[in-house]
Amino acid sequence: MMRIMRKTPVNQRTAAKEASHERIVDVASRAIRRSGYGGTGVADIMKEAGLTHGAFYAHFDSREAMLAEAADRAGAAANAAAADIVAAVPPEQSLRALAAAYLSKEHVQGIENGCPVSALGSEMPRQSPEVRRAATLRIKEMIDLVARQMPDWGQPGAHERALATVAAMVGTLMLARAVDEPALSDAFCAATLKRLDSADA
């Protein structure tokens, strides 16, 4: 008796591949924030994603291509979280709420799921052009979100203040994570929040 072999439909195989790809990028987006670009290896990413090392090249042409997608995913997630914070408060409170959440103890301690700019900024000059381009686009998106919270949004001054605000927030978070004294870490965040409040007054 002849057995008929049933092939998996193409759309099921495509869906499975897409799901695997998404899982790899999600794992990599957390890994780069946790361990840095240099500490993020293909074998470890594939293992954490539950896939074999050999399957990597079915999804990416190179490690840099994976890192670029991971940088984009991490930036998109951070910006979406920031947009949710802004949307949850009255417009006149949005900038304060955004800064307070960004410089919160939870964000200082939550590097793996937090802002990739503060986690990876010092590594960016040594990355490939495709990784830097992906990160730059998300940084510009972040600046635009902050600029839209300014009372004079649309004017040149609003964009300039947004640049300074983002630089202050990112730099503060980097310093707050760098030091090994909790009180100093808290003091960095508190001082920046105070300065941002007085600048908006």
Structure overview:
- The protein has about 200 residues and is mostly helical.
- The model has no long low-confidence stretch (mean pLDDT about 90).
- The chain is built from 9 helices and no strands.
- Helix 1 (about 10-35) packs across helix 3 (about 65-85), helix 3 packs across helix 4 (about 95-100) and helix 7 (about 130-145) crosses helix 8 (about 155-180).
- The protein has helices at about 10-35, 40-50, 65-85, 95-100, 105-110, 115-120, 130-145, 155-180, 180-200.
- The chain has a domain at about 65-200: Tetracycline Repressor, domain 2 (Orthogonal Bundle).
Which overall shape is indicated by the principal axes computed on the Cα atoms?
globular
- What is the CATH T-level topology of one domain? Tetracycline Repressor, domain 2
CATH architecture of one domain: Orthogonal Bundle
Distance between the termini: 84 Å
Q: Could you name the key traits of this structure?
A:
single chain, 201 residues, mainly alpha, Tetracycline Repressor, domain 2, 9 helices, 69% helix, globular
List the helices and strands and how they pair.
Elements: H1 10-35, H2 42-48, H3 63-87, H4 94-102, H5 105-109, H6 116-120, H7 129-147, H8 156-178, H9 182-200
Helix pairs in contact: 1-3, 3-4, 3-7, 7-8, 8-9
